[in-house]
């Protein structure tokens, strides 16, 4: 093993397995995504709890009611708090219950509330990417998450003072503050992640999305039925946000060069291995090459595969609960275990795919391009097949249907090592902007998918109509990945490093010819 002294002498950071500052940045991003997704999901549970007043004479055995079929959150399965164990509820009733209000929202008002987050979320995608690459990701994520934490704390007060309309405004503002999360995370990864660790570090960051969803599903029901009631869902979540802000302020930095405690060895290792081109100084960046970006086939194939992925993925997450209930008589939303199972499997498989990528790394003949396209194919074409199969599972074989559903959602974790990190491959300098462009367009698709399903499925108990939905989603999966396999590239594009003053550039060092992603 190379000693620290030898690393300084040779200029190499040979021990890549050392837990370094770059890993700390990714762990902080993991919790950033955890909070972001927990704050998205919390309303789907809170709506159930805040619209059904419990029986005051027997709180331990009350049910907060089932959410409507139409109450579909674009980012999660709804969770019915009646799935909480009666024994634990009884224990919680020893504490005095604080006064809280309950509301009667119409189904249309609920749908507005559940979708309002995304009205703001889509707007700040591209501006967020631009700001992150120009001024750094640290302060953008800090201000965005802090603002979202404050808005989360204000949610109970907003609905008390202004009804569902005020609450909807709060959700739109939360979406605006979170729109930069993915672009800024990508921008940070482009500065911190060595090329051969890019997939692994990206997986660490983005698996926080699944963890946040699981955490909120597992805890919201308990919190809503505690002495503090449903407002505590928002108070606890907002408070956790400020704990994260403190750690982020102390330990995070937009670039390795700006970090106060990074070692010279790790800094040199990152600088020498993060890109084959040139990293521009964020304060002296050349104008974004919009024309070159939108006429680049590798980028356009990335844009399309991101959109098709979101169509298929959110068709699953928003419509499968209705399918399972109407065809197999399984109420996924009434079980916290079934609701969180696909996310749990997805999180576990994401780290299995990182391990598999390490195995493939040892095959020197396998290129980075092969790795990206292999994992993207696994994450799209296997769900394509399982989706079609799901439409033909007999009604009496509900267990197989649940298994196929879990596989379809879980296996999509392979895309973390596929298209989802390809923005950094194409353009480390403009990775945040590229993610803003593709994620913004993809979230439009995630909003359109449930509307299309509503037009196709007129009778929820007609399995033939559901098969049409699955075939459509499978077609999106097939076409998107096919275009990525044909036109996708992993080489840094020429427009990533336009001609600018040499003083504003940091010279890059070429990588090995066939780096495998980890």
UniProtKB/TrEMBL annotation:
The keyword Ion transport applies. InterPro entries: MFS, MFS_dom, MFS_Na/Anion_cotransporter, MFS_trans_sf. One of its GO terms (molecular function) is symporter activity. Keywords: Ion transport, Membrane, Sodium, Sodium transport, Symport, Transmembrane, Transmembrane helix, Transport. Its main location: membrane. GO terms for biological process: monoatomic anion transport; sodium ion transport. The chain crosses the membrane at residues 21-39, 112-132, 139-159, 199-218, 230-251, 290-314, 335-354, 374-393, 400-419, 439-457, 469-488. It is found in: Membrane. Residues 41-492 form the Major facilitator superfamily (MFS) profile domain. GO terms for cellular component: membrane. It is a multi-pass membrane protein. PANTHER family: FI21844P1-RELATED (PTHR11662:SF280), SOLUTE CARRIER FAMILY 17 (PTHR11662). May be an inorganic phosphate cotransporter. Belongs to the major facilitator superfamily. Sodium/anion cotransporter family. This is Putative inorganic phosphate cotransporter.
